[in-house]
Write a structure and sequence with these properties.
By secondary structure, this protein is an alpha/beta fold. Helices cover 49% and strands 19% of the residues.
């Protein structure tokens, strides 16, 4: 009689209700994932948002660690191996990868360099960098904030740091699509992201400094 192996990691990918690539994503993950890693494709029920889908996926997850990915991220077995090694060394940290956009272009290289510097210097990785954290730590943070109209991943990272959770950068690039920039204009989206980043970061940074002073 075979005994089911409890997964070490559960991958959670939020999907749009009419995601065209759902079957393709499922097939790819089944091909590359080892037995100790399973996955959940989570679609929000109306009127749920992205944060809601992420939290619902986390509720269903059976893995000790939760690994949140975007549907257009390019994942291969090396990412899994690097992450398994990282969580073994630093189980109490929040893990993330270096960001790279595809297809490659000079403008998108500029954006990826900026994102990686932001992550390293300011401690602000985003969801497209493949955030991974222990399930009990995820729940202690309170999950993704469903009251946020945007940037739920950004706020989630700050609230982890406010609770003393350290970050760990995995030295491997995780590619994600530049589709949003191509469809809406590189300059417009880049400028908008910068504005929203600082608008959202300042109150969270203030709270972070306050909590550090009283601990």
């Amino acid at each position: 009689m075979e005994v089911a192996v409890k997964p070490k990691i559960t991958i959670i990918i939020p999907l749009l209700p009419k995601e065209e690539n759902k079957e393709k994503i499922e097939q790819h993950l089944k091909q590359i994932l080892p037995e100790k890693v399973d996955f959940i494709l989570s679609c929000p029920d109306p009127p749920g948002n992205r944060a809601y889908a992420l939290n619902k996926g986390a509720e269903k997850a059976s893995g000790e660690f939760l690994w949140f990915l975007h549907s257009d991220s390019i994942l291969d077995s090396s990412h899994v191996l690097y992450l398994l090694d990282s969580i073994e060394k630093y189980p109490e940290r929040m893990h993330y990868f270096l960001l790279e956009f595809f297809p490659s272009s000079l403008r998108m290289k500029f954006n990826s360099i900026g994102a990686n510097l932001r992550s390293k210097i300011l401690g602000c990785p985003y969801g497209d960098q493949g955030l991974c954290v222990k399930k009990d730590i995820f729940h202690s943070i309170g999950g993704y904030p469903e009251d946020q109209k945007y940037g739920e991943d950004h706020v989630f990272v700050w609230r982890a740091r406010q609770r003393g959770i350290k970050l760990n950068m995995i030295p491997l690039y995780l590619q994600t699509s530049d589709r949003k920039y191509r469809l809406n204009g590189w300059f417009k989206i880049t400028l908008l992201h910068q504005f929203l980043f600082w608008k959202q970061m300042l109150p969270e940074l203030k709270e972070y400094i306050f909590k550090r002073k009283i601990t």
